Amino acid sequence: MAANLASYVRGTSPGDAPTGALVPSDEVNEMANILASCVNTRGYTVGDKTPCDNLFSLATPPGGTAPTNTFAAALDIAKHPGNNAALIAVLPTPQAPFPTSAGYVAPLDWTLAITFPIGPTVATNIAIDAGGDLWAVAPDGLYELSPTGVKQTSYSNLAGNTVAFDPSGNIWVALSGSSQIAKMPANLSTPAFFNVTTSGGGVGVGALAIDGSGNAWYTCPACTTVTEIDTAGTVKAASPSNGGGLITTILSIDPSENVWVGNITDSSFFVLQPNATLFPSEPFSCGSGCGRSAFIANDHAGQGWFIGNNLTLVSGVGGTATSINSPSGGIFNPSAVAIDGAGSAWVANTNSITSLTPDVPTTAGSISQFDTTGTAISPDTGYASNNLSTPQSIAIDGSGNVWVRNTGTATVTAFVGAATPVVTPFSVGLANGTLGQKP
What we know:
The protein is α+β, with helices and mostly antiparallel strands. It is 11% helix and 28% strand. It folds into two domains: 25-89, no CATH class; 118-432, YVTN repeat-like/Quinoprotein amine dehydrogenase (Methylamine Dehydrogenase, Chain H), CATH 2.130.10.10. The strands form seven sheets. The protein has a four-stranded antiparallel sheet with strand order 1-27-26-25, with no helix packed on it. The chain has a four-stranded antiparallel sheet with strand order 2-3-4-5, with no helix packed on it. The chain has a four-stranded antiparallel sheet with strand order 6-7-8-9, with no helix packed on it.
């Protein structure tokens, strides 16, 4: 991915990015100029206010040790892109060797995000496979991008709304406009199509998740139960009707292979044990912050992260709920959440707080980062990119790139190396006990 940002041979940005990719060359060049202001000196002494001393002081991570060379400073800035971002942006760059565009405005953070085209229509869901390829499902087919954003083969017979992978690398797609799920083998040969059952008057498949054994769990619009099918498409189990009026919409699977199911009608949710039976005292409540839940993700500690009205962290099955509200970490109209290899939660925001603030660059979305306790790591403006366009999905790959699906354009945006690498796909983490952990 780094070769997309800059060419080490030519010394220019962009590098060798795929056709149509939007690279933040001004930010790359300006950071290079800031580093060069230190490189092109004879050294420094702590506290002497020279270019190197100023850079190393501002790059020092919160509670950490000051870097002593430009490589370490660059790494600290990359790992903590919101730390002193505005002050770093105005460091003097005399005789700057790398040009920036006329009218360039310094960023609010030092994340570097590349936007890639997918297909002619806006995707509905994204997922990362074991090799780091990104797969985007759309109303006109299934699309594949390499780990560096290069378009691969597309599959028009797999138009759908959700895509997921099992531990063997098979690709599962909930197809659009029908009560069918497709499973395409890992070798990309002819897919199998399974007719699935629904309940409660629902038609079609909504949420889809694969457990560590390769079985698929799914919901449907207006359904009141959740169904599990095996690798051959045969129904293994269906949850009992919850009896509480819950309409199943979204689901996620925790490290114990319990299935967490969201509810579109209120702030309730329920959890199925691996045998599809309910826990006692269900349904559970996650408070007003997750009302009409739109997304759930589970971390390696078994906590549930809910996207609803805001972000809500539930400490475990039947645990306490903590609501995380705007502007913490830049949360603003959140739409999805994913967990990285350090257990941090990354949230896609359909709007950006910066768009409400005068005299700063505006964007059509942002991403936010929180530690395992729900404490914000990202600033109150989140992490932004001028090429985000109402992001609605988020995924993290084995290199730590944070991918978001844009809905204002038929594109995806990758925040390069922003997160801690994580085991992909999700089902492999469940199978080998490394859900939400480093590879």
